[in-house]
Amino acid sequence: MSDPRPVVGVFDSGVGGLSVWRALREALPHAHLSYLADNAWAPYGERPAEALQERLLALVRDWREREPLHLLVLACNTATAVGIDALRAGHPDLPIVGIEPAIRPALAATRSGQVGVVATRATLGSARYRALRGACMASAAPGAAVHERAADGLAHAIERGDETGAEALCRRHLRALLDEAPDIDTLVLGCTHYPLVLPCWRAACGERPLTLIDPAEAVARRVLNVLADAAAVPGAASMGDAVWRCTGQPEALARATRQWLGLSPVVEPIQS
Ligand code: DGL
């Protein structure tokens, strides 16, 4: 008998999607979560958009040949920014939930009106990000402003599990943002890798009270709603399980799931 549980695909360039996986597991304890890390190509953030788009289309096509995805979560701001439209056009039968820098919640939360966004260069340079920013600013309070910083190198340090390097980069990028806009009181973590090193951000903030915004839980709620609309929320009768695949070194993803989630999964390498 075939398994009636929906398969929720969770995609990232590498280990960043683990921050979303964590929120999904919490919201959907009985779902079958299938994680794919394109770590042969990570980090995505400094690659050209056209190459990424082609890569994403090929990966999702192969993935769907491997297993029946009921819903795909692009747990990667960069992949969402450059590829979600092409993926939706190529897979009109597959619900796809993306992740975007949480500018709107940040503008709602800020008291000073000054919001910072850290994300990859590819996300910040995308037309999708500019449109999102424009839409948010159109309804923002007078005087509000959004300040961006491409956190070059940070996803790569996190990918390597290098927390010392990550902390130095959090400090450097935050300092650059605050030099530009000292009144920033709310910081959007616009790359799914960044919430994995929350303690590094906190150390970089020091005494400064800065609200850090991670949209992972909002994404998980959205996934729950989409599955509920399709009457596909798995019931408590079945245990939630997980599959882990990657295009590069399986040890790297296995180490990261231990380091960031405290899990010890078997990771299957796939050809890409
Ligand atoms: N985790 C990804 C994001 O949310 C990509 C980071 C990268 O591969 O550069 O943007």
> How many strands appear in the DSSP assignment?
10
The helical percent reads: 40-55%
Each distinct ligand: D-glutamic acid
Adjacency order of strands in the biggest sheet: 4-3-1-2-9-10
Oligomeric state of the chains in view:
single chain
Give the class-level CATH name of the largest domain.
Alpha Beta
> What is the radius of gyration computed over CA atoms, rounded to a whole number of angstroms?
18 Å
- CATH architecture classification name of the largest domain: 3-Layer(aba) Sandwich
CATH topology of the largest domain: Rossmann fold
How is the topology of this model organized?
Elements: E1 7-12, H1 18-27, E2 32-37, H2 49-66, E3 71-74, H3 77-90, E4 96-97, H4 103-109, E5 114-119, H5 121-124, H6 127-138, E6 145-150, H7 154-159, H8 163-180, E7 186-189, H9 198-205, E8 211-213, H10 216-229, E9 242-246, H11 250-261, E10 267-269
Parallel strand pairs: 1-2, 1-3, 2-9, 3-4, 5-6, 5-7, 7-8, 9-10
Helix pairs in contact: 1-10, 2-3, 8-9
The protein binds D-glutamic acid.
Quick structural summary:
The chain has 272 residues and is α/β, with parallel strands linked by helices. 45% of the residues lie in helices and 17% in strands. Helix 1 (18-27) crosses helix 10 (216-229).
Q: Can you tell me about this structure?
A:
- With 272 residues, this protein is of the alpha/beta class.
- The protein folds into 2 domains: 7-99 and 217-269, 3-Layer(aba) Sandwich (Rossmann fold), CATH 3.40.50.1860; 103-214, Rossmann fold.
- 45% of the residues lie in helices and 17% in strands.
- The chain is built from 11 helices and 10 strands.
- It has helices spanning 18-27, 49-66, 77-90, 103-109, 121-124, 127-138, 154-159, 163-180, 198-205, 216-229, 250-261, and strands at 7-12, 32-37, 71-74, 96-97, 114-119, 145-150, 186-189, 211-213, 242-246, 267-269.
- The strands form 2 sheets. A 6-stranded parallel β-sheet has the order 4-3-1-2-9-10. Strands 6-5-7-8 form a 4-stranded parallel β-sheet, with helices on both faces.
- Strand 7 (186-189), helix 9 and strand 8 (211-213) form a beta-alpha-beta unit.
- The longest helix is centred in the N-terminal third of the chain and has 18 residues, at 49-66.
- The radius of gyration is 18 Å and the shape is globular.
- The two termini are 30 Å apart.
- D-glutamic acid is lined by residues 12-14, 16, 42-45, 76-78, 120, 123, 155, 191-193.
- D-glutamic acid binds next to helix 3.
